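Weekly structure sync, notes
Attendees: PL, DS, HV (note-taker this week)

Item 1: Sphingosine/diacylglycerol kinase-like enzyme
DS walked through the input record. Source organism listed as Desulfocurvibacter africanus PCS. Sequence as pasted into the shared doc:
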Amino acid sequence: MNKDGVEQRASFGPETTRPLRIKAVINAGAGITPAGKRADIAGSLEQAFALHGLQAEVELVQAEEFEAAVERAASGPWDAVAAGGGDGSISSAARILARAGKPMAVLPMGTWNYFARLLNIPLDLDGAVAAMAAGRFGPVDAMEVNGRFFVSHCTLGIHPRFVRERVRLQHSRGWFKPLAIVWALVKSFVRYPVLLVEVQHEGRREVLRTPFVMAGNSLSALNPLTVPTHLASLSDGLLALILGRRLGRMGLMASALRTFRGRLDPEKDFRLILVPECAVRVNRRRVRATLDGELTWLTPPLRFRILPHALTLLLPESAVKAKEQQASTGPHGPAV
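Item 1 (cont.): predicted structure, written out as tokens:
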């Protein structure tokens, strides 16, 4: 990255031709790594790195060893550390690597792969490695809530309820994940929570009832599964607070369908606040939340703030072009 914050090619100067040295740390418990295929995936990754001209070492670790392995890699002689796993694993790695000042790459290996989607990273592993090889290093903002680091989103309301029910069905009942997801969605919409929240931002105060609250990275937070490329800015220093409108059960389901289709309508679906920081009070002593897809408890008031350029990422060329397009059309792209 140069002094103006522009991404630099993943190389080491015009006279240097050596390949990038990548340490890949893979969570063996990730969604696409069933026990019988873990060795196959590690071998396939090593072949993909070699095919695309990257010098890489792949380490497959158990979930409980993942963070320690990333910490070791962060202090090693690598140009970047590639984290492989679901959104929770990617978030943990990002926190460690941001603190260490080590560049990061992403290998999407979870169920939703939300952060990878935001970055326009291909969801197949060979495509993700190819994107690394052709990519550029660039800055990405992170966020925190009450001092807890996250890179994609923090949610309250209906989404944590859905995640809790899906996890219960999978782990306690032994349901297959696709079936658990469908049933958890149905159950969440049948009985969804309504939160009374007070939002304080830029000297203003708003009070409203909402079925969900989502804090994410700028306008990229609008569509969690299908982010239009012209909105995919992750380094403009703004946090997006999205508050769902009270639409009733059918209206909320219609809003969810628009989310999956990438057609969210701010007039119909949500209230959007773009700020560097804000505080959210909820009418509860503790509130269930998700941080980058992982269930947790938070204690109000929830103090959100953006962490500008907290993380250096190896970005795919498509994400860089999207950012350049956005820079040419204004800091927030088309009006929403």
